């Protein structure tokens, strides 16, 4: 989709992009001067130079595009850099600056990797550095700045924050609300949320029960793996509104083997123990 994209050009929005497609300018290689449609862009003479830079950026610079596209349009980079993408979600002890990260789940489209506070959390910065794109839900507002503050690092990867992509498609209400709107069922983890994840961590630290940690990690992983499904769904819905749907639509992803499973007895026990605090 990237090579069909023109709305990363300053002053050239989606409406003008559609008019370009309708006039036969379907890709960067089709560009011609003067352009066949009127444009509000202030410097049309710079467009060929920007398109040349875009071709160079295709190889390994997704930030070139996310830095020029609206956050709701970042879906456009998804297939091109999919092999270098990490789906990321964190769990924390709260929202305050003094809060700590409890677990992190990263899914690369093939395998799930988890990190746990007190065990191997310190390995996360080196691990995440191998990816070029991070896919999150509300990562721009929460996960990424929290990680940067906690580890005292800078995450320079391009980001696809599905909160903005899905909101433009009419799906809101947080990650769980978007999942429900798109027919994604969490099974045994239905009803478990971020607050309950804090309770699970507290229970684990108090009891040392590995079943509790497994349940927390299963929840964290579910958030992460579902991001790929949401990314594909959002991409396909956006591509369906272009002339390129037939050739560019993506197959529904095959779910991975999950390394952790929720324990129903643990969920019930923690719910009963903390019910008065809900």
From TrEMBL:
Residues annotated as domain YprB ribonuclease H-like: 86-233
A Pfam family annotated for this UniProt entry: RNase_H_2
InterPro entries, per the entry: RNaseH-like_sf (IPR012337), RNaseH_sf (IPR036397), YprB_RNase_H-like_dom (IPR038720)
GO molecular function terms listed in the Swiss-Prot or TrEMBL record: nucleic acid binding
Protein name according to UniProt: YprB ribonuclease H-like domain-containing protein
Organism: Desulfoprunum benzoelyticum
């Amino acid at each position: 989709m990237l090579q069909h994209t023109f709305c990363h050009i300053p002053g050239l929005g989606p409406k003008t992009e559609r008019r370009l497609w309708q006039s036969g300018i379907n890709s960067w290689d089709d560009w011609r001067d003067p352009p066949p449609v009127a444009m509000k862009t202030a410097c049309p003479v710079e467009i060929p130079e920007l398109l040349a830079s875009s071709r160079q950026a295709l190889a390994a610079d997704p930030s070139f595009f996310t830095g020029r596209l609206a956050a709701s349009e970042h879906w456009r980079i998804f297939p091109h850099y999919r092999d270098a993408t990490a789906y990321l979600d964190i769990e924390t002890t709260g929202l305050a600056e003094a809060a700590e990260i409890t677990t992190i789940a990263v899914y690369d489209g093939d395998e799930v990797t988890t990190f746990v506070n007190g065990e191997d959390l310190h390995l996360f910065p080196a691990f995440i550095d191998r990816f070029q794109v991070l896919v999150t839900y509300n990562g721009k507002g929460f996960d990424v700045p929290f990680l940067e503050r906690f580890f005292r690092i800078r995450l320079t990867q391009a980001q696809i924050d599905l909160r903005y992509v899905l909101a433009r498609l009419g799906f809101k209400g947080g990650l769980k609300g978007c999942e429900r709107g798109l027919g994604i069922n969490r099974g045994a983890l239905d009803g478990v949320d971020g607050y309950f994840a804090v309770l699970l961590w507290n229970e684990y630290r108090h009891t040392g029960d590995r079943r509790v940690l497994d349940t927390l990690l299963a929840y964290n992983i579910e958030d992460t793996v579902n991001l790929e499904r949401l990314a594909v769904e959002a991409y396909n819905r956006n591509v369906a509104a272009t002339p390129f749907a037939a050739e560019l639509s993506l197959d529904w992803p095959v779910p991975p083997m999950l390394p952790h499973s929720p324990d129903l007895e643990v969920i019930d026990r923690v719910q009963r123990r903390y019910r008065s605090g809900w």
